[in-house]
Specification:
The protein folds into two domains: 94 residues, ACT domain (Alpha-Beta Plaits); 193 residues, Formyl transferase, N-terminal domain (Rossmann fold, 3-Layer(aba) Sandwich), CATH 3.40.50. Helix content is 31%, strand content 32%. The protein contains eight helices and 14 strands. The longest helix has 24 residues. The N terminus is likely disordered.
């Protein structure tokens, strides 16, 4: 399925004030894209810190992180948009701005436990972030967003491509830095995921890589698992295979039923997802070669 997957990084100039930008490129695969983008960065005084690229079924995606000692945003943005027209590809630029709280979008479906934990943590000041918007695959949890005074957008998924296009417009409107899948029961396509590299966090109800998919607790119960847990991970184009951020588990008692396992698991999911989000917002996570390193 994946025709190309490369990741490289270069040493950053630590200790000096720099502007960090993240460039994402998505479009129909063609020759010369990487060279054109990297040459543009170099000519504008940038130093490439990280770069990765993938091709899936003719769709090309690239994420590039570059540092600049000084940068003119207007010139950089206009130059990249001209390059986007030339390449006939979509190019987005995201600026890392440490002087403001990150804007977070919470994606939900029907289950409230993860959404409730993040909203409660935000209200208590346990995380330094702006919960800017809640996006639901249906309106079931709108009342929780309303109670917290957060805009809620329900996006139907009758057509996946159209739904993702609508969601991308919402994210751009709120200048979203981080997406949290708080039990969001929809699969995001590579066309979406590549636009937010290592900026989408999901919670999965099992200790990955075991029991993938939506019915992890059923599988664990039916197979007599003695330990059940959950995994918070960054989302990639490969389902449930992204870099693992944190995991937690509990022992299954003989008296446990499927319902009691689910109840325990959901409480664990909420706490584990919140822990991962907090680490990300504190800038304590680094991803190297598909593995998450937690900074102390």
């Amino acid at each position: 399925m994946v025709a190309d997957n490369t990741t490289t990084s270069s040493s950053s100039s630590s200790g000096r004030r720099t502007t960090i930008i993240e460039v994402t490129v998505v479009g129909k695969d063609r020759k010369g894209v990487v060279a054109d983008i990297t040459n543009f960065i170099f000519k504008n005084g940038g130093n490439i810190e990280k770069i990765s690229q993938n091709v899936v079924r003719g769709l090309f995606g690239m994420q590039l992180e570059a540092s600049f000692k000084s940068v003119g945003r207007k010139e950089l943005d206009s130059g990249l948009q001209e390059l986007a027209k030339k390449l006939q590809m979509e190019i987005k630029v995201h600026y890392q701005e440490p002087d403001r709280p990150q804007n977070v979008a919470l994606f939900v479906s029907k289950e409230p436990h993860c959404l409730e934990r993040i909203l409660a943590g935000s209200k208590k000041g346990e995380i330094d972030a702006n919960i800017a918007v809640v996006v639901g695959s249906e309106p079931t949890l709108k009342h929780l967003a309303d109670q917290a005074g957060i805009p809620f957008h329900s996006v139907a998924h009758t057509d996946q491509a159209e739904a993702e296009l609508n969601i991308l417009k919402i994210l751009e409107k709120y200048n979203i830095d981080l997406i949290v899948l708080a039990r969001y029961m929809r699969i995001l396509t590579p066309n979406f995921v590549w636009r937010y590299p290592n900026r989408i966090i999901n919670i999965h109800p099992s200790l990955l890589p075991a029991f993938p998919g939506a019915y992890a607790y059923v599988q664990a119960y039916e197979r007599g698992a003695k330990i059940v847990g959950c995994t918070a991970h960054y989302v990639t184009e490969d389902l449930d295979q992204g870099p693992i951020i944190s995991q937690n588990s509990f022992k299954v008692q003989q008296s446990d039923t499927l319902d009691s396992i689910k109840k325990k698991g959901q409480a664990l999911e909420a706490g584990t997802l919140f822990e991962a989000v907090k680490l990300h917002l504190e800038n304590r996570l680094e991803v190297y070669w598909g593995k998450v390193h937690v900074k102390k």
